[in-house]
Each structure stands twice: as structure tokens, then as C-alpha cells.
Specification:
By secondary structure, the chain is mostly helical. The chain is 50% helix and 0% strand. The longest helix has 27 residues, at 80-106. The chain is flat. The chain binds zinc ion (ZN). Residues 42, 44-45, 47, 54-55, 57-58 line the site of zinc ion.
Length: 107
């Protein structure tokens, strides 16, 4: 292309994100993960995280994936992911009970 015309060429799409990850020699996916990690979000889904990398949902998924990989039998039920999972289940159950009460009251 002629040098004078280069400035006139319009870029398609949105502008590139300019930050410390822009010029790293890693894939776009990895850059996205690094940006989410920096902001304190789950690197997979972008929800608030509970571990260094993952939200509770993806933490449990990663745990089970690794357990399958090494064929674990025992469970370390005192670990963080199990405790958080149990807490989340309790709050869900409480919410369900509350909602049932509301629905029954309306009828
Ligand atoms: Zn997630």
C-alpha cells in the first residue's frame, strides 16, 4: 500500500485494549484470563472469585476434574472448596424454603 494512504485506512471493529498484557507473546485467550485475574474475577466466567483463579462453581469443577484424573477415592472434606460448597448449598436450601413459604401464602 502507498505510504500516504496508510493513515486513511479505517480499522474495523473496536479499538485494541491497551494495557500491560497487550504486547505479551501469548494467545488472546490467555490475555483475557490474565486481565480477569488482575481484576479479581474468575478466569473462566468472570464472576467474582473465591480462590486465586476460580469462582466457586469452577473451583468445584476443577477439583472434580483433577480427582478424576488421578482417580482419587478419599475426599479432603475439610478443604476450602468443600466448605464453601456446603455453605452455598445451605443458603440455596434456605432460599428455597423461604420462596415456598411466599408462594403458599399467596394462594
Ligand atoms: Zn467461574
Amino acid at each position: 500500500m502507498h505510504p500516504k494512504r496508510i493513515n486513511k485506512v479505517k480499522r474495523k471493529g473496536r479499538a485494541k485494549i491497551q494495557d500491560e498484557f497487550t504486547n505479551l507473546q501469548v494467545s488472546r485467550q490467555r490475555k483475557c484470563q490474565l486481565r480477569r485475574q488482575k481484576e479479581g474475577l474468575c478466569i473462566i466466567c468472570g464472576q467474582p472469585r473465591v480462590s486465586p483463579h476460580y469462582c466457586l462453581n469452577h473451583l468445584v469443577m476443577a477439583r472434580e476434574r483433577q480427582r478424576n484424573r488421578i482417580r482419587s477415592r478419599r475426599r479432603n472434606t475439610g478443604s476450602k472448596s468443600y466448605q464453601l460448597e456446603a455453605e452455598a448449598r445451605k443458603t440455596l436450601a434456605r432460599q428455597r424454603v423461604r420462596n415456598k413459604g411466599r408462594l403458599a401464602g399467596k394462594k
